[in-house]
Design a protein that fits this description.
about 400 residues
């Protein structure tokens, strides 16, 4: 099979790569203990992610143009469609990185542009998330037995709006516009976390009644870490900027309102941070059986779940350390950052190896494989051709029998 045919299987799941890479740039930006060269490392990840994002957009557009039937198939496939929001999350992560690494080095035009892009991203996140869930609920019935943590994935576009608002509230000059961004970011983040929290309950019920997912699907368990982690980073980041942006008469007494909201946010987020840590520990423990055996299971793009949700946990850890002025917690976050960068290098290397070894970008090896009654468009075409050929042969045989009968 030539590489052109292999790109037929370039699915939406490849945007998990750009999510993870942009997440690494985000984590590096939030490291509290800075040293010369750290900004350069973060900028390299940011620019590399821009290249990867443009490459993903180009290849998947080429796939849909060259093989038009794969576009509708990607929306109907029970697994691939779950990864469609990954493109929106990648776009949002890219905007976060622009606000982090671009604003300090650009003119006022970028400050105006990022505000417009923020509201655009928020609208896109709401539409894409609700749209995918509506598509899922209207085209297929699901059971608890088939539940996977990736059911949370379509809500992820909403979960990075709050962190985006927190970054903008820090990067932009204090103004009423920033207050609007904080209010909007807090609202959208709340929607995302509450929906994810409801799905958490289904996930726990599935674990209690059906045991752990198959080993090949366990990397997706880390997806459950993200909602809590992103919410903590978002709420604490926005709460920290309230006093600088509230007017004196906001809610009667601006400074008092900012102080009360900050104290409430700090203590409430401890619970949510603990929930993220708990899901992280459970997800790590679930991989013990994989390591205890031969430690081998085939690579899939879901392996980037080892990276992106943990970027949320680390940024939340830094935010909690800052809120409670805890150097120990911040040092813990730095240790986790080093481990995460090493993990990203390993997973990225395994992805390249999987492409060479034909473990991905290959028929029946990716998220577009036949499952749940879904058949790939090319196979449907083959079946139709086989049926037509069989019908033609049958018709010819009957016609031959009739002609022989008449001759007799």
């Amino acid at each position: 099979m030539n590489f052109r045919e292999r790109l037929r299987h370039f699915t939406w799941s490849f945007f998990t790569l750009t999510m993870a890479t942009g997440g690494i740039a985000n984590v590096i930006y939030t490291v509290p203990f800075r040293f010369r060269g750290l900004d350069t490392i973060g900028t390299i990840f940011f620019l590399f992610n821009v290249v990867l994002f443009l490459l993903n957009i180009s290849i998947i557009s080429w796939r849909f143009y060259t093989f038009p039937e794969t576009f509708s198939a990607s929306y109907m496939h029970p697994t691939e469609r779950l990864f469609i929001p990954a493109s929106v999350v990648s776009f949002g992560t890219l905007l976060i990185n622009i606000s982090q690494y671009g604003l300090p080095h650009a003119g006022p035009w970028l400050s105006r542009a990022v505000v417009i892009l923020f509201w655009t991203d928020a609208a896109l996140a709401i539409l894409s998330s609700s749209g995918i869930y509506l598509l899922m609920w209207s085209t297929k019935s699901f059971t608890v037995e088939t539940m996977t943590p990736t059911w949370i994935f379509p809500i992820y576009p909403l979960l990075i709006i709050g962190p985006h608002a927190a970054i903008l509230s820090k990067s932009l000059p204090p103004s009423a516009t920033v207050v609007d961004i904080i209010i909007g970011g807090f609202t959208v983040q709340g929607i995302g976390f509450l929906v994810a929290f409801l799905i958490y309950a289904t996930f726990i019920y599935r674990l209690m009644t059906q045991k752990l997912p198959p080993e090949s699907g366990r990397p997706g368990m880390f997806v459950s870490v993200g909602p809590s982690g992103f919410t903590v980073a978002a709420v604490l980041g926005m709460a920290d900027r309230l006093s600088a942006n509230f007017s004196q008469d906001f809610m009667g007494d601006g400074p008092m309102a900012a102080m009360i909201l900050k104290v409430v946010a700090n203590w409430a987020c401890l619970w949510i941070w603990g929930l993220a840590i708990w899901f992280f520990v459970v997800s790590v423990g679930a991989h013990w059986s994989c390591a205890r055996h031969d430690g081998r299971f085939p690579f899939a793009m879901t392996w980037f779940s080892f990276i992106f949700p943990q970027t949320a946990l680390i940024t939340a850890t830094f935010a909690v350390g800052k809120a409670f002025q805890s150097g120990v917690i911040q040092i813990l976050g730095c240790v986790m950052t080093v481990a995460l960068v090493i993990a990203w290098l390993m997973v990225f290397g395994m992805m390249i190896r999987a492409i060479v070894k034909k473990q991905i970008l290959w028929p029946q090896k990716g998220e577009d494989r036949d499952e749940g009654g879904f058949t790939a468009p090319e196979k449907q075409a083959e079946r139709r051709l086989s049926t037509m050929s069989l019908s033609r042969i049958t018709s010819n045989a009957l016609a031959s029998m009739k002609s022989n009968g008449k001759a007799g």
